[in-house]
Write a structure and sequence with these properties.
alpha/beta; about 20% strand; Enolase-like, domain 1; single chain
């Protein structure tokens, strides 16, 4: 309880999301966002929602749990001018708040998150907005409060609410673009957030992901296919001691299997490691034992980044371990990202497909102003959302270990019906959707077509034919 109270006090020091007072953060740069460029006022006349449950090839293990299917949420918004747009969201109860996942059945947890999406749609029906960022700000706290009520988790992570709002937010962005005659992702970005999204990488690394149930043959197969950076989940189930022992054994096997592979993409020429314990290490001293093991194996120097080793409430500094530590789900909002930056986190993992594009832009700009690097991770999303994420990844400054964009993409590894799901995307078969030698080509055609996100999908349009 003491740690939680300390964190609440720490958060209070960070101030409010916009125009914050930075008392207690003397080295943290932050500028108040100005998104008041005059745009058309858009009234939401109709809303709609559907979902599809997509099974996984096998249970996907992380955070001490296993998921077997993933809900794909489809949201419909229509303005009073008759223009309609559809936004997608992929739910991940285990990722966004493992306590909810543990408390309910897998479908039960998903149903609760979906109820929050429906609640949001009812909040915005009949309302007007000029900016999707402002629209999200106007409903986030209320949706979050509703989520705490229906889940029975009083300290629910705000990421859980943001995850429920991705489809609503994406639909709002597409409606905003259509109503304002915007046809390009760059033009859709508000001016205040453009500095953080100003790069134009010609390549974005496709990062496959492996749960702790993955076999060494699977890792070797990906390396043989040209994938040169892989996200590997740590934090095996069990007690802290059991977890550490299993993770150490996992590292040993990984380094023996793929540690010798080389790549021309990195400056060192060696394959970089990207580990994600998903907040499973309760104490820093336990995590340092894992790093000591990596040093003994000779793999420490190849660790490019370690994502979210500690729980949300952990307040330890992380800039004294000799590696880049990145914040992911603990950087729920811009306010939380400020705290992580002050704790010495050297990177922020962005998930426009998990925390909404609106919140992602805020976090990206904050990181940019404080010289903290960003890259994009996946949520085992569908092919269309993969391209939404790619639009962000292709525009971020490079992490440093390599000079191209970085994006985790693991849907092709995990969905039973991935090939069928690809046909739902109007960009299916386009050059930027096909990874070759571990990279997605994001050249002129990708930027010209904004990764295809403005093109309607017949599959999802068909769901709402009776709405029109």
């Amino acid at each position: 309880m003491k740690k939680t109270n300390n964190r609440r006090n720490f958060i209070k020091k960070a101030g409010t999301i916009a125009g914050a007072s930075l008392t207690g953060f003397p080295n943290l740069s932050f500028s108040t966002m100005n998104t008041n460029t005059v745009k058309k006022s858009i009234k939401i006349a109709k809303v709609g929602s559907e979902f599809e449950r997509e099974p996984l090839i096998r249970p996907y293990g992380f955070k001490g749990g296993l998921i077997t299917k993933v809900w794909q949420v489809v949201n419909y918004l229509e303005s009073d001018s008759g223009i309609h747009k559809i936004g997608l969201g992929t739910q991940s109860v285990l990722w966004s708040d493992s306590r909810v996942f543990a408390k309910y059945t897998e479908n039960g947890g998903n149903a609760l998150m979906y109820a929050m999406t429906e609640y949001a749609l009812q909040l915005i029906k009949g309302q007007s907005f000029t900016s999707p960022v402002e629209l999200l700000d106007s409903i986030l706290d209320e949706v979050y409060a509703y989520g705490k009520k229906i889940t029975g988790v009083s300290e629910l992570y705000k990421t859980f609410a943001l995850n429920s709002l991705v489809g609503v937010d994406n639909a709002a962005w597409l409606l905003y673009a259509a109503e304002n005659n915007i046809t390009n992702f760059d033009d859709m970005i508000p001016e205040d957030f453009r500095p953080a999204l100003s790069h134009k990488h010609e390549k974005v690394a496709s990062i496959p992901s492996f749960g702790y149930a993955a076999t060494m043959d699977e890792l070797k197969d990906m390396a043989e296919k040209g994938y040169f950076i892989m996200k590997i989940k740590l934090g095996h189930p069990g007690s802290q001691a059991e977890m550490l022992e299993k993770d150490m054994e996992f590292l040993t096997n990984i380094h023996k299997t793929i540690g010798h592979y080389e790549t021309p993409i990195t400056k060192s020429g060696k394959m970089p490691y990207y580990f994600d314990p998903n907040g499973r290490y309760e104490k820093k001293e336990t995590f340092l034992k894992l790093l000591d093991h990596a040093k003994k194996l000779g793999m420490f120097e190849q660790i490019a980044v370690i994502e979210e080793p500690f729980p949300n409430e952990n307040e330890d500094r992380v800039d004294d371990m000799g590696i880049i530590v990145a914040a992911d789900e603990s950087a729920h909002t811009e306010e939380d990202a400020k705290i992580r930056i002050e704790q010495g986190y050297g990177a922020i993992v962005l998930k426009a497909i998990a925390k909404t594009l609106s919140m992602t832009m805020k976090i990206a700009q904050l990181a940019h102003e404080n010289n903290v690097r960003c890259f994009c991770a996946d949520l085992t999303v569908n092919p269309i959302l993969l391209d939404w994420n790619k639009n962000v990844a292709a525009r971020l400054a490079p992490l440093g270990v390599m000079d191209i964009g970085l994006q985790e993409a693991n849907g092709h590894q995990n969905y039973t019906n991935w090939d069928k799901m690809k046909t739902y995307s109007p960009a299916n078969g386009k050059s930027w959707t096909i990874a070759k030698d571990g990279v997605f080509p994001t050249g002129k055609e990708f930027y010209k077509q904004s990764g295809g996100i403005f093109m309607p999908s017949p599959h999802y349009e068909e769901m709402f034919k009776l709405n029109r």
